[in-house]
Write a structure and sequence with these properties.
The chain is of the alpha/beta class. Helices cover 44% and strands 14% of the residues. The protein has 3 domains: 57 residues, Orthogonal Bundle (434 Repressor (Amino-terminal Domain)); 133 residues, Rossmann fold (3-Layer(aba) Sandwich), CATH 3.40.50; 131 residues, Response regulator (Rossmann fold, 3-Layer(aba) Sandwich).
Length: 348
């Protein structure tokens, strides 16, 4: 087909829909359209509706790169989460994204699946796009990621963690204290042979902090810690099943088991029931996460509920405060310690 063909001429004549085109179509100024994307709260509802209709009808896509260069600040906030397919981080992602979007910012998301190397790769790629801020999970990073965090000239927030000595803003809780809480709760209920099952995801180092809190507490109570490590990278339900079968196969059996998360606990609970165990009479079971199915199991699962939604909302608020988009009620707090809640159910 020649360059002078009708199809080619039509393609060349279409052109890119510009911000000015949208403004003319909506009957507003270009500044108002720009404010619609960057500061929507400052545009009246009637004008927002007209601009939204124009954007939809024209198929307008804002040039975010050019806009970022012009304003010297991107409208994108980058976040790296260990696992976007699991339920435990879902509320954090949703709360973070919803809060950002109300102020004209969008979320750029990557999953590391508990791999420091994958997280490092994502951070390097994200920083190359000059995001407005960077949000990570926990304080476990590679040396290269630590260096990038140190040199970043944007706000950096670490979530799902509480490490007062670190430089980035902290929003989360102490995993060590979660382990302490779980161990003391079961001890107070009268259990003495209390085991802990680690996560089969090898890079889940926060779960090891919960294990450490559990182990130290048992030693202080005069009891022997009992830790089981499933096969590396075994699917969570299978890992819970393996733990239950092997722990209950010996002459010395635990009378209570703390699982690193609710997926493992559910696998263990179901495997125990298949083998004829009575839960909690023969063995109590406890998880972490308060996953959506936890209260629907039979027996329902005792667990510790992390402040997942609150972490996401507060992290976004702190980012927006750091960028000057929101005015903080008081001085921006570098540390933001939130509470976990023990949810007692039938499995203990």
């Amino acid at each position: 087909m020649s360059d002078d063909s009708p199809a080619t001429r039509k393609r060349k004549g279409v052109g890119r829909v510009t911000l000015n085109t949208v403004a003319r179509h909506a009957g507003v100024s270009a500044i108002t359209v720009s404010r619609y994307f960057n500061q929507p709260d400052q545009v009246s509802p009637e004008r927002r509706e007209r601009i939204a209709e124009a954007v939809s009808e024209l198929g307008y896509v804002p040039n975010l790169v050019a806009g970022g260069l012009a304003s010297a600040r991107s409208r994108i906030v980058a976040m790296v989460i260990p696992n976007i397919s699991g339920p435990i981080f879902a509320n954090t992602i949703q709360g973070f994204s919803d809060t950002l979007s109300r102020h004209g910012f969008q979320l750029l998301l990557a999953s590391s699946y508990f791999s420091e190397e994958q997280e490092e790769s994502a951070v390097r790629a994200f920083l190359g796009w000059s995001p407005a801020a960077l949000v990570l999970t926990s304080h476990f990073h590679s040396a290269a990621t630590e260096k990038m965090i140190e040199q970043a000239d944007i706000p950096v927030v670490e979530t799902w963690d509480y490490q007062p000595e670190r430089g980035p803003m902290q929003i989360g809780f102490s995993h060590d204290e979660v382990g302490v809480t779980a161990a003391r709760y079961l001890h107070d209920k009268g259990y003495r042979r209390i085991a802990f099952v680690q996560n089969s995801a090898v890079g889940d180092l926060s779960a090891l902090e919960r294990r450490n809190g559990y182990a130290r507490t048992l030693e202080l109570l005069g009891l022997q810690p009992w830790v089981f490590a499933p096969e590396p990278d075994l699917a969570p339900f299978e890992a819970g099943k393996q733990a239950m079968q092997q722990l209950m196969a010996g002459e010395q059996r635990p009378d209570a088991i703390i699982f690193a998360n609710d997926n493992l606990a559910a696998g263990g609970l179901l495997a125990g029931q298949r083998s004829g165990l009575r839960i909690p009479e023969d063995c109590a079971i406890m998880g972490f996460g308060d996953y959506p199915f936890a209260h629907m199991l039979m027996p329902s699962l005792t667990t510790i509920k992390p402040p997942a939604l609150e972490i996401g909302v507060l992290a976004a608020q702190r980012v927006l405060e750091s960028l000057g988009v929101l005015v903080p009620e008081g001085e921006i707090q570098r540390l933001n310690l939130l509470d976990c809640h023990l949810i007692e159910r039938e499995s203990t």
